[in-house]
Amino acid sequence: MDPNDEWDAYEASVAASEPPPNQSSSNSSKPVATTVYTNSNRSDWRANNISNTNRSNWRANNISNTNNQRFDTNNKKNITVPSDKVGRIIGKGGSKIRDLEYETDTKIQIGQASGSDTVITLLGSDDNISKVQEMIGKLTEEWKPPVKKSFDTATNSAKNSTNNPDPNFDPKEYMIINEHGEEVMDWERFNAYCDKVQKDIWANLPPIVKDFYQEDPEITAMTPSQVAQWRKVNNDIQVKRTFDDKPDLRPIPNPVLKFEHAFRNYPEILEQIYKQGFKQPSPIQSQAWPILLRGEDMIGIAQTGTGKTLAFLLPALIHIDGQPTPREERAGPTVLILAPTRELALQIWQEVCKYEYRGIKSVCLYGGANRKDQINQVSKGVDIVIATPGRFNDLVLARHLHAINFSYIVLDEADRMLDMGFEPQIRSSLFDVRPNRQCVMTSATWPEGVCSLAEKYMSNPIQVNVGSLDLAAVHTVTQKFKFVEEEDKDSTLFEFIYDMDENDKIIIFCGKKATASHISSELAVKGIPCQSIHGNLDQSDREAALADMLDGTVNILVATDVASRGIDIKDLTHVINLDFPRHIEEYVHRIGRTGRAGKTGTALTLITRNDWAHAAELIKILEEAEQDIPDELERMAHRFKEMKIRSEREGGNMGRGGRGRGGRGRGRGNRW
Ligand code: AMP
After folding, report:
1. Ligand 1 test: best mutation among 273, 344, 351, most atoms within 8 Å of CB?
2. Of 83, 90, 129, 352, which residue is 20 to 30 A from 234 by alpha carbon distance?
């Protein structure tokens, strides 16, 4: 997947055929909510820029030509490419062309289309021009079905992929004659050879140390029933070995009760914690720190807001500093944190930056931002890489990063990464990772895919569950509902907004990007400042949107589900679900954006007849939170159940009813 598309992967299912955001109202956008409109223009960059006959202007305006000085503008070469492939060279927002220019030290000018071809001018040294021409050739070539690998390509790629250090390697040794008298590769023997090479490479890596834990006598003295009681009253934490609890494995450590219990031997870490003003470890931290400081693999079933970042971060800092190989002699960064979205990656990075420890440096890598800058930062030497899987895999494939060097790996919000289709990138990136690394995974849920990822990358992990579905969040949020017709949603929302207090801070969740754009436009037309965050927006605008919410420049954020997790906006008072989310888990994540850090919050959810399939699940959540269950919700759940029974009896398939485009309005009236 193109790393720049990583964000869109998530929203693709929602936005398959959505029109670009409404541009017609852009004139009325200023001065409030400016990003809403500048973004809608920008997202349609192709229409606005590429088809523009004055392409040189576009280049001048959009691609900062920082390396202009280096080029001998007389040394140029014109090539032609099919016009319908020019977009591949440019990439989203000009990202690909920037990458090509950076990687080959050239300048690329897109010329006018003539007929079905477009002339492209390449500037730079002869060598670099050939390099970029070859790369452009690869980018624009038609896809062909893969041909059977020849002996040479197979062995060469195997040789390269393992970085085979064996100078005596001769692929011919692995050839055999088959029953037809043909010379073919003996794959079994060859694969065994590759495995051995890989093992030798791992065996020659510098050793790593993983156990830094010294249990405090107060913690050792805790009785099993005290431990059980502590877990019960701390979000009903459950701890177990995820897979077989083998007899040779150490018992699960007791939780720590104070910061000093975990970090007494690391006063500089304690100092950093005190600086934050935290009073005590959060439940996940209490249980995770002893496990992680002891060097064990851990799966945290916990969500944002539980303190999970610090749970894996502080042991990571100690791990970095405690390795026998001095940092300056290491072949690459030590800690890798993969996160599903740019926002979450940035949020983790911001958290990391709050903790100064022995000059440890970190970098945040994500698609849609300047790849050249990111590569520069990596090459200057960092200890922690926080990345989205698309961009990380991109840099691994380009050999700017090598998974083999990481000895502490975090897969944050693993379920979300899998939902977004990142499994191939994760598996490809971590192919070489050393088997004795320490691995941490966090996930809000425990689906099959996450379990198999854990089986593949973790060694006897200990699983810490902080409440199933983190229903703790729903206890601090008052959940309100309004039963409306689809067409009355806007007026209901605006009624609420007009009643807002000056200090209220709200997030409005919409099911589609188009709805988010529409609501943002409506707010702007009414002169109500807001920000918006969804997959059609540039990265910088998403960051600006969050910053504006955080510093109080605006009090309303309009969002799609990309913002439902990982976004930590302090003092959010209300969550409004304009559209009901597709999954009940998403509902919990959304409402959990408020009522955080000891505060209470309110969630208002607009429910239409099309949402009836969710009524029963919603009732369970309300029961768990000991909140009032509206009669209308009970009736909806009842009607849905009856419909399902009727449908099954009649052999029909009513599905989940009415959430999809096609389903909207099916059987309206009689099922309500
Ligand atoms: P997280 O779950 O990692 O997204 O953390 C959510 C928020 O909780 C962040 O703003 C952290 O700074 C904060 N936090 C982390 N640990 C603690 C703690 N022990 N006490 C209070 N707040 C914390």
Report:
1. 351
2. 352
User: pTM score > 0.90 for this model?
Assistant: no
Q: Which CATH class is domain 238-253+295-465?
A: alpha beta
Which residue, judged by its Cα, is nearest atom 16 of ligand 1? 307
Condensed to tens digits (0 to 9), the pLDDT of residues 366-420 reads 988 888 899 999 999 999 999 999 999 999 988 899 999 999 999 999 988 887 8
Angle (CA) 352 416 489, round 5°: 105
Residue in 257, 258, 310, 550 to alter for ligand 1 test, most ligand atoms within 8 A of Cβ: 310
Residue 668 CA to residue 672 CA, distance in Å, equals: 7
Where in the chain are the domains? 3-26+474-658, 151-203, 238-253+295-465
What is the C-alpha to C-alpha distance for residues 396 and 365, in angstroms, rounded to an integer? 12
DSSP state of 47: I
Where does ligand 1 bind, in terms of residues with CB under 6 Å? Answer: 278, 281-282, 285, 304-310, 568
Nearest CA to ligand 1 atom 5: 307
CA of 354, closest atom in ligand 1: 12
| Same fold? 3-26+474-658, 238-253+295-465 | yes
Name the residue with tokens 């070859």: 134
Distance CA 1, CA 427 (A): 13
Nearest CA to ligand 1 atom 15: 307
The CATH architecture of the domain made up of 3-26+474-658 is 3-Layer(aba) Sandwich (3.40)
